[in-house]
Amino acid sequence: MTTIAELPPGFADKVLSAQSTFRSVMDAMARPGSVQRIVPMAGTPGPMMRGVAAIALTLFDHDTPLWLDARMAESSDVVKWLKFHTGAPVIQDSSIASFALISDGALLPALERFALGTSEYPDRSTTLILQVDSLDAGQGFELRGPGIDGVATLRASIKPADLFERLRVNETLFPRGIDVVLVADDAVVAIPRTTRVVSKGS
Amino acid sequence: MKLSTIIDNLDSASSVDRVTQQNNQQAQRKAAMAVLAHAEAGEIAARLRAFALPAHQDLRTPENGLVMLRGRVGGDGAPFNLGEATVSRAAVRLASGEVGFGYTLGRDGEKARLIALCDALVQSRDFSASVERDVIAPLREQLTIRRKQAAAETAATKVDFYTMVRGEG
């Protein structure tokens, strides 16, 4: 049981910190595969990384239903912290979630279980925020797509290992699809629905 | 309660004590809020400046928002939305763990933070007496004086309609 007395604090400077974090996430989305840093830091509850905590404080509010993976959902620290600082409703039904927080890639459900948007409103899809082990070491990925001049290279150790294979549903669904934000500590990489993984090195 | 039953039920008696204590604290916080919400931010800050504050941090930095004010037709009829009012809120945590909340009308975030700080101090075992004595009691006195003065000024403009009618007739 967490009482409010033990809750980690939010941003020290709400407006500037949120603006700075928003900028990092926007740059990451605009340049898929590039590693952006999140500078402002807030308290981190339970299994949540500090980058994810900053993104939560920036993007979540009472209009963005959240879906949490089992590890996050069973941590009362995380649920209470999100409720206190963001007011976002935590829901069980992943198909209507605006954001999904995944702390353990092994717990990522089939992507079809999330909101994919509609042809009229492709923006009404779930954005996955996935905590990964590392975004500067590990397997090599080559990315292509809008926002990338030629080919971008990403080295990352990501769970689940077949994430990019699973994301190929985006090719057939377009303009619908799933956007992914990968976070390792304070590093952020975005894989929007238009990005294709062209080859994999070791 | 007879003494014998108290001794027989020591456990339940002490839990009753805890509940009363909690209710007392609730009442104290409520009373403090009633004063602080009507005080000026500068007045609260001036009182707190003379106060040896314990270490504290902002759990929720001051933020502004809107609340919908609801009215009732004729005071007790169907509810309707009267309009929105700006409010500020903040939450402060003392190093010893007490968390205070401050809500106030208007956009003065600093005032909300000071109220939250006072609320946390009121709950603290070490500071509740001194904050009541040095901050809240003087503010309460000022508030009472202001209210009495306003009431007196209003009372001076009272018109006796009976006299008016008689004057015409």
Automatic annotation (TrEMBL), chain B:
Pfam families from the UniProt entry: PhnG
Recorded superkingdom: Bacteria
Keywords: Lyase
GO terms (BP aspect): organic phosphonate metabolic process; organic phosphonate transport
InterPro entries in the cross-refs: Phosphonate_metab_PhnG
Molecular-function GO term, any one: lyase activity
Keyword Lyase included in the entry's annotation: yes
Name of the featured protein: Phosphonate C-P lyase system protein PhnG
Organism: Bradyrhizobium niftali
